[in-house]
Amino acid sequence: MNAMTPDANSAAERLVHVPLGERAYDILIGPGLIKRAGDEIAARLKGRKAAIITDVHVAPLYLDSLVASLERVGIQAATLVLPAGEKTKSFEHLMTVCDTVLGARIERNDAVIALGGGVIGDLAGFAAGVVRRGVRFVQVPTSLLSQVDSSVGGKTGINTHHGKNLVGVFHQPDLVLADTGVLDTLSEREFRAGYAEVAKYGLIDKPDFFAWLEANWQAVFAGGAERIEAIATSCRAKADVVVADERETGPRALLNLGHTFGHALEAATAYDSSRLVHGEGVAIGMVLAHEFSARLNLASPDDARRVEAHLKAVGLPTRMGDIPGALPPAETLMDAIAQDKKVKSGKLTFILTRGIGQSFIADDVPASEVLSFLKEKHPQ
Amino acid sequence: MNAMTPDANSAAERLVHVPLGERAYDILIGPGLIKRAGDEIAARLKGRKAAIITDVHVAPLYLDSLVASLERVGIQAATLVLPAGEKTKSFEHLMTVCDTVLGARIERNDAVIALGGGVIGDLAGFAAGVVRRGVRFVQVPTSLLSQVDSSVGGKTGINTHHGKNLVGVFHQPDLVLADTGVLDTLSEREFRAGYAEVAKYGLIDKPDFFAWLEANWQAVFAGGAERIEAIATSCRAKADVVVADERETGPRALLNLGHTFGHALEAATAYDSSRLVHGEGVAIGMVLAHEFSARLNLASPDDARRVEAHLKAVGLPTRMGDIPGALPPAETLMDAIAQDKKVKSGKLTFILTRGIGQSFIADDVPASEVLSFLKEKHPQ
């Protein structure tokens, strides 16, 4: 897998096509893609100008390489390096990105390129969706989480004081370049957090993939063919859901498995990443979703134990008690859930499951049941 | 036309359907629609919440009536009254509008309602397109210009220091309520400016409509059936172009007839509405486009004279010399045109014509020809 030549690279590389009609695009997955980005972009886009949006963590590692690769094919690139972190997804930074993109005289056929994780992808994608009412957009995700989740599907957005991702657009990328080589520079914790979303695709509707992960997770963590395979399978799973429901009016909600509890825990820890990052919240949330489904007699408790055993094996937190520091009482967690979700006459929409790989959307979950369950799992 | 009962209203009313698939919508045109807005909105939208965006000029005239009409059908409306004028189309005001809409807990099936002219429609439409990645949107245009142009077609946006309308989204309304009764409160000058866009539809590809306007313009200005007929024909014309090219990749550019020269004149007068408003710039621009086409031996000079005679008859300016105050030299106007347009190897894209109602897109107009023409029309 430490391929040194372009030929060897393409042998290791995977392509996932997202068939969205006139918005169809390719996801390339493999090592060395940042160095080859110029060729891949030039082959697909007419424009010869680009604006690269990145952050202070990623820029020192990959920005020069990306700019050089674009220059080699005659694409001029303006660059903007933003602060890292969730706070960057703001109206103020959206203005700055739009200003940079307009200042670079990006036209409809030119591209905004997001080089970074989910924060940069969501922000740059939003700008690409609104400058001139939409210009081309290329995602170069540099975290496992963004490679398997946020870079695919076209959801973009920023946060406001009313909540996360409440302002944005659907704007599909024209190309996603998931350079798996960059994952070697991630911290173990960050890689694990992204892995929670990989496991999620198995739990939604791919029991065989979940079993494969149970058997092969160490190779996925070590890098190599299994890692590329896991990312490609995740991208394909995400793409299938997006194609079925591009604008999230129905089945796309399945992608939220584990996220309702997860979001509540993120809110309860004030989005303090030293205590809990998104993927960790999702890991705990997925275990809770399986346990809650068992409590409702929908699934066997064995499934919840199997999910927990796997996530624990890879080193992810699986219980509320695994989060350092005190959590607020169950009632406060319940308030966060109610705020995240529409509550209609005391009923919540929830992703539940009948077992591994058998999740479904339930739109009539009694809020009182959720609260009882939370009190049981998190006695004060 | 001073119908006092709903029945008489509906007799006078026109409906233009815009068949855009799942984004299809109706435009209702007639008197008394603001008072009936609640019924029309409730009949089409599932949500029971709304946020009305308006400005300080329009609010005292119609806001109470609109809010009362919504309340009668059980729709709760938050309201936001903004400063009037082009400067309101800014990032700062977009933030304020999004904040109001989120604060009103507007969900996907609830509506943002724009009550005002083009500025309010463009700004509120942009917010409706991005809050929760798109909520329902109702246009209640209160100027002739917005009734026949900006409220139809889904273009939304704001201005930046790089230029006008450079940031925005395509977000079709779910309903347009063009209350023709409100036009009686417009100033003569504002009504005339909107009329320039009405005449434009005749000049693009409807020679019979242009001839009808020549014969009936006084009745259109006086109000009554002819006014409703002229607005409905304009909305139908705009809708046809939008359906053919929703995202402006081709024929929609025909709607820019007269706008290239017009925008340059607006820029040359620093968007000072005491000297020139948009519709007046378009009027002069349409005469120039016909004269320029004649100069290129594409059309007869008689057509340019006929266009000028009609616009002059209704009281619109038709020559650069009609603009109060001094204009910059032709070279400066040319710079503004070049900045407005993409100039490729000295060639410009321009809407030209072969005669009344025979306009077309020319993408190879030599910039040097435009400059010579401007020098001839505007000798220093």
Q: What are the main properties of this structure?
A:
homodimer, 380 residues, alpha/beta, Dehydroquinate synthase-like, alpha domain, two-stranded antiparallel sheet
Short description:
Chain A is built from 14 helices and eleven strands. Chain A is of the alpha/beta class and 380 residues long. Chain A folds into two domains: 14-184, Rossmann fold (3-Layer(aba) Sandwich), CATH 3.40.50; 188-377, Dehydroquinate synthase-like - alpha domain (Dehydroquinate synthase-like, alpha domain, Up-down Bundle).
Give a structural overview.
The structure is a homodimer of 380-residue chains. Chain A is α/β, with parallel strands linked by helices and 380 residues long. Chain A folds into 2 domains: 14-184, Rossmann fold (3-Layer(aba) Sandwich); 188-377, Dehydroquinate synthase-like - alpha domain (Dehydroquinate synthase-like, alpha domain, Up-down Bundle). Chain A has 14 helices and 11 strands. Chain A has helices at 6-12, 37-44, 59-72, 91-103, 118-130, 144-150, 188-205, 207-222, 225-244, 259-268, 278-295, 301-313, 330-340, 367-377; strands at residues 14-18, 25-30, 49-55, 76-82, 111-116, 136-141, 158-160, 163-167, 175-179, 347-353, 359-366. In chain A, the strands form 3 sheets. In chain A, strands 1-2-9-6-5-3-4 form a 7-stranded mixed beta sheet, sandwiched between helices. A two-stranded antiparallel sheet of chain A has the order 7-8. In chain A, strands 10-11 form a two-stranded antiparallel sheet. In chain A, helix 3 (59-72) links the parallel strand 3 and strand 4 (76-82). The longest helix of chain A is centred in the middle third of the chain and has 20 residues, at 225-244. Mean pLDDT of chain A is 93; it is low at 1-10.
